[in-house]
Amino acid sequence: MSTTFGQPAIETLAHNLDATPDAPRRKVTRRTWQTVIWAIVLIALTALVLYPLVWLFFSTFKPNSEFGQNPGLIPQNPTLANYAKVSEGIAGVPMAKFFLNSFIIAAGSVVGVLFSSALAAYAFARIQFKGLAILFAAMIGTLLLPFHVVIIPQYILFNNLGLVDTFVPILLPKFLATEAFFVFLLVQFIRQMPRDMDEAARIDGAGHIRIFWSIILPLIKPALITCAIFAFIWSWNDFLGPLLYLTSPENYPLPVALRLYNDQTSVSDYGATVTAGFVALIPVLLFFLVFQRFLVDGVATQGLKG
Questions:
Q1: Per the count of CB atoms within 10 A, which of 126, 172, 184, 186 is most buried?
Q2: Higher model confidence: residue 19 or residue 49?
């Protein structure tokens, strides 16, 4: 009896044991192929996105004679002369001065945006006053207003005040909460925070300044870092504002200084232009790489959790 009924059971068990490892193998193989395909697609997209940056880097080693003659990636006669020209500066102004001007504008913009936008956002999110909805809607409406519309009135105003060819027209609006995008971002961040801590602090005698500085400000740190990253990059790459208000080469930031290498009335130095553009891009890349983790946290975090 044991032989009659036991033999089929043993054969079935052996068959199951032989078949069991095969199913995971096929599944793993299928997933492996999917992973390989996705990796190839992502590598191709990454190469497509990074190609302009790679081309810019290799073009810094091309002499002027190869621009327009050698559209390829690798220079035929590599040279370091472009870096030597850029290090010397242009129009009697060293390149370090252009970097310093850009840093002053970018750093001042970050400080002004964080200071004014955080205060304005706290007022919109935590203080109830008459006309709150109207003022908030008007602020959001400024996002639809192009900068070119207010260029002429602003220039006339700053020109009458004798502030043209200074950094004041560029930095002063940053301290007046004129960047509606950052205010709106911080308002939405603060509104998702519970008011329990505010009410408890108010019971202990804390005012709005104390609540803002000790409670709200530490909690909105991810959003502030996000605002700082965008404000730095936008200010560093800004061309129209400095071009409009700055007239002396010694006050030019890097985006405006780059156009000095291209003169339509004479021969343009494409090698120095490309090299200066690549050098100007390095601080932005480093700034983004250092703070990209905080950027993701600021975008992903939606107030308090738990």
A1: 186
A2: 49
Gap between the Cα atoms of 157 and 88, Å rounded: 36
The Cα-based distances of 96 to 89, 90, 254 in angstroms read 8, 11, 10
Residue of 18, 59, 27, 93 lying closest to 248 (CA atoms): 93
CA-to-CA distance for 146 and 216, rounded, in angstroms? 32
142 has a pLDDT exceeding 60:
yes
What's this model's pTM, rounded to 2 decimal places?
A: 0.78
CATH code of the domain occupying 85-300 = 1.10.3720.10
- The secondary structure of residue 90, as a DSSP letter, is B
The highest-confidence range among 12-16, 139-143, 149-153, 232-236, by mean pLDDT, is 232-236
Q: Which of 261, 291, 306 is nearest to 82 (CA)?
A: 261
Spatial CA neighbour of 108 closest among 282, 285, 238: 238
Q: What is the pLDDT of residues 182-210, one digit of tens each?
A: 999 999 989 888 888 888 888 888 888 88
Reported in sequence order, the residue ranges of the chain that DSSP labels E, i.e. its strands, are none
Dihedral over Cα of 136, 138, 143, 147: its sign: negative
How far is the C-alpha of 144 from the C-alpha of 148, rounded, in Å?
12
Q: Contact 279/203 with Cβ under 8 angstroms?
A: no
Domain ranges for the chain: 2-59, 85-300
- Least confident stretch, 15-24, 27-36, 236-245, 252-261: 15-24
